[in-house]
Amino acid sequence: MTDISIDMKEQLARIDRTQAETGKLIEETQKYMAEQHKLLAEQHKLLAEADKLRLDRGFAPYALALGAIGGTAGLIVAISAALKNLGVL
């Protein structure tokens, strides 16, 4: 009878150790999963920013052209106003 109770106590102790190790592994896994979620959120943020920059880069030549056209139009208006004031036009 004592052999059985000693064997059962050893098995119970082994089960307790295994459960404690499993609990530690579960906690560690949860920490890694939380970190992974943070990294995925950061990745999505960076991808969105990259898309925005890519879009801005695509519009840059058009913005430059429109700015040049506007500047030229302003210069023409200023020159014509100055010539009108001088009585040339």
Highlighted features:
89 residues; single chain
Describe the structure.
This protein is mainly alpha-helical and about 90 residues long. It contains one helix and no strands. It starts with a helix and ends with a helix. It has one helix at about 1-85.
In short:
The chain is mostly helical. It has 1 helix and no strands. The longest helix has about 80 residues, at about 1-85.
List the helices and strands and how they pair.
Layout: H1 2-86
Quaternary organization? single chain
Catalogue the unreliable spans. Answer: none
Report the helical percentage. Answer: over 70%
Q: Find the structural class using helix and strand composition.
A: mainly alpha
Form type: rod-shaped
Report the portion of residues in β strands. under 5%
Q: Give the H and E element order.
A: H
The whole-number mean of residue pLDDT values reads 92
Outline the biggest β-sheet: none
Helical stretch count?
Answer: 1
Termini gap? 123 Å
Radius of gyration equals: 38 Å
User: How many beta-strand segments?
Assistant: 0
